[in-house]
Specification:
80 residues; globular
Length: 80
């Protein structure tokens, strides 16, 4: 899971960084660093998020691929 997907899930839940961190067992500071792209989401944290929100690895991969395709599309549109 990348930092952008991590942040999207947190924002979707409406949780603060503190509340999201408490939920998955990490500090607010680590949540912030992940969202800024300065730290990676560990497999353990990804598993906790997946269990809590009942999502699969395939769903996370889908979100990240969709986001990548959206970014490519946006860049292409700006060039036109």
């Amino acid at each position: 899971m990348n930092g952008k997907t991590f942040k999207l899930l947190r924002l979707h839940t409406g949780l603060t960084q503190q509340a999201f961190g408490d939920l998955v067992g990490i500090s607010k500071q680590l949540v912030s660093l992940i969202e800024l792209g300065q730290r990676q989401v560990t497999p353990n944290t990804t598993a906790k998020i997946a269990r809590h929100f009942d999502i699969t690895d395939e769903f996370v991969v889908f979100i990240e691929k969709f986001d990548t395709l959206s970014e490519i599309s946006d860049r292409t549109k700006r060039r036109e």
